[in-house]
Amino acid sequence: MSLYVNGELADFKEVLNELSRTYFVESVDAYVGELTDIGERSFAFLDDGVTPRKYIVVYVKLRNGKEVALLEVERAGRSVSTLIITSLNGSNIKLYIEPLLKYIIFSSGSWLKEGLVKWEKRLAIYKVKHTSNFKKTVINKISDI
User: What is the DSSP secondary structure assignment for residue 45, as one 8-state letter?
Assistant: First the structure.
């Protein structure tokens, strides 16, 4: 997986590297983008107001046939949880990534439960906070899917 990132997103890459080595994962594909390509509000930029905030979307194909997406947004001093997303109705997860990114931009960097509820019939969405157990929590949650 060739993914050029630095800073805190590089730490997230370590999670992906470990995830790709687990027995229940078939493949891991990651893409980096800038929130300014999705929407132009203050959260789309870092605190300097000029530098676009980056995000990583990761598609994980599990050996059980299911697909999971991880959505990581550059925090840069903010506490933004990572989302783990899987389809409940067999729909393509990729269709939901841009609307979710628009949602976090317009909610100023928060994955508010009230805002995520509109997807709950089609998606299972898990929020994972960045704690000392982050890597273990992400891997355990995905292994349960």
Answer: B
Place of tokens 């630095």: 6
Instruction: Could you list the beta-strand ranges (E) of 1-145.
Output: 25-34, 54-62, 67-73, 82-87, 123-128
Residue 22: CB atoms within 10 Å? 14
Distances (CA, A) of 57 to 29, 85, 100, 114, 126: 8, 11, 11, 22, 15
What's residue 1's pLDDT?
A: 44
Q: Which of 90, 93, 89 is nearest to 59 (CA)?
A: 93
Instruction: Report the alpha-carbon distance of residue 20 to residue 28 in Å, rounded.
Output: 6
CA distance 48 to 141: 34
pTM of the model: 0.91
**DSSP letter at 84?**
E
